[in-house]
Amino acid sequence: xxxxxxxxxxxxxxxxxxxxxxxxxxxxxxxxxxxxxxxxxxxxxxxxxxxxxxxxxxxxxxxxxxxxxxxxxxxxxxxxxxxxxxxxxxxxxxxxxxxxxxxxxxxxxxxxxxxxxxxxxxxxxxxxxxxxxxxxxxxxxxxxxxxxxxxxxxxxxxxxxxxxxxxxxxxxxxxxxxxxxxxxxxxxxxxxxxxxxxxxxxxxxxxxxxxxxxxxxxxxxxxxxxxxxxxxxxxxxxxxxxxxxxxxxxxxxxxxxxxxxxxxxxxxxxxxxxxxxxxxxxxxxxxxxxxxxxxxxxxxxxxxxxxxxxxxxxxxxxxxxxxxxxxxxxxxxxxxxxxxxxxxxxxxxxxxxxxxxxxxxxxxxxxxxxxxxxxxxxxxxxxxxxxxxxxxxxxxxxxxxxxxxxxxxxxxxxxxxxxxxxxxxxxxxxxxxxxxxxxxxxxxxxxxxxxxxxxxxxxxxxxxxxxxxxxxxxxxxxxxxxxxxxxxxxxxxxxxxxxxxxxxxxxxxxxxxxxxxxxxxxxxxxxxxxxxxxxxxxxxxxxxxxxxxxxxxxxxxxxxxxxxxxxxxxxxxxxxxxxxxxxxxxxxxxxxxxxxxxxxxxxxxxxxxxxxxxxxxxxxxxxxxxxxxxxxxxxxxxxxxxxxxxxxxxxxxxxxxxxxxxxxxxxxxxxxxxxxxxxxxxxxxxxxxxxxxxxxxxxxxxxxxxxxxxxxxxxxxxxxxxxxxxxxxxxxxxxxxxxxxxxxxxxxxxxxxxxxxxxxxxxxxxxxxxxxxxxxxxxxxxxxxx
Length: 786
Fold this sequence. Notes:
The chain is of the alpha/beta class. Helices cover 29% and strands 17% of the residues. The strands form eight sheets. It has a six-stranded mixed β-sheet. A four-stranded parallel β-sheet has the order 3-4-8-11.
């Protein structure tokens, strides 16, 4: 405890000193009295945006369709930069294009939360929402301090973590579409200044969030296949129940004001040029109200790499007519005017996009005079790196840490009785490695080694490897240090040289000589050692899981600015770990057996294809989705169980159909959810109450997970194409030692019991459905049969 206090007192003043310089006014329009209708706050935003667009020449209009958007001085419109990053805190973007800058002004840092996969492991939507709130508030504070030329942030990344090798999986909430969709909705609501639930205010934005990358994007550069050229071949079934649901939730439940279309093609069509995807689905079916940006240079590759467009002007026409609004890059700015003069686009196409862009800037209050005197004007530099925000970063790191192994009570370590500690591993002494990717300058910076030194005076550090790649090692030196210490903690895993944007992994094991180093240290140590894994994507640590000389394993991911402190607190029992894995951990063989380019979710027994994610995978695992231990034991049970026949009377008048449910052509009698209608779906909803109890001696937070399973899919996906199981609800519950609580879930059969048929339609199958809590702790059956 003393160590943590010392660390905070040393590093926090640095942040405060960096915020001591004077702020300047932010850029804005309509500062002085103006007769322009676009400055009239009483008019509808759509009318104001149309008025502004009508005052521009075609050349001016086209010039505004890139992420670096010039000003229009004659109308008092300043330049605007659309590209800002805020994946897990307000972050850096390329200096010449960044909407936010940290190098000039009172704000030189922002709260850096754990990488998204870590906070996802908390299974705590309220935590995710609060993180979004802090990011939105700090973004506005930076803008009001005159250090930003934009308030549009290209986060969250809500692509499903389909393949464990994906370099950007660390940026996502994991492999489950329901969980990812929930994360998207609450994070976006927090950033944009909305309430955690209920109706959204479509006219006002604290900051703008953008859900990316729409859609089926989860490959960077694997075996010579790049994201720029990749054609993702995806079935309607997989689009409907895996790839698209998070984006739908982001729009319908979160009220997102931005969407980013991706680099890849889906079934031959570039996503940024897909009218069905952008206009029919997002704007039509989901009623999206916002702007759509391309990923950076995604318009250029439609012609230059993919060859989908014959001429540059064709690429411009393809994306504008599909429904894209702004190009991250200058391709539309370069070729838009010639596309207009060639008749490939109309001024209406340009105006449609431009009005969507102006509307966002107006919703942000940037055409209402100086923002410092408007709705969010009281948010300044003093709101960035606040103690409350840094406390939340620590809480997020604590709650996301997952205890994977703890034999014979290896953890927690005794705080008062350790004479010496050996800390081994390059990542232990590098605080920046804790940030993952897409990070900015953090408010504080504490490495795991620094945090552990605050607990044990006699702490010796040996890197053991030159870096995570571990192609140069000092195994002998590490083993010697281990043999001399009372306790040993190893920090192994990955870094951004193994997994990142534009780089996928080839193998699933620990890189280089890390495994040999771990085994040698474990053999030399006096007691079973502790292995801490710092990585985004999963690694196969079967060797450590079965080694009795490795007493405990912790996954800490990339835990952000407070990650070093959080790890130390978990190791020494100041925090009871409660995180659960948001992804499946596969054995090494998976990487050689399954092509990363195969987008199929469901297993195929005829070819030996094992499927993907806990919902469809049929094969051995290292650790399962939702796995995680604690220093406490917990139990779950349903407080009451409805009769299996409860649904019978509620299904009166609803018709069954014979639906083709799998590629094999099998048919199952099912109810079509769309045909059932909203009234019937409301009628079918019911509550499920779970009693959860902490049987341990420590207080703790515990995620309660609720699943659906079908009778034929206990352990396999059956012939129907149904998932093996499906997450339908989750809640993080704080319990004192020995305390019990009731947790209520609302179960919506139309949402939770439905699955996608081959044609993508949502159906509820006739017959039994089982609601399961936890690791099959308890369940009840409901029959869908009138």
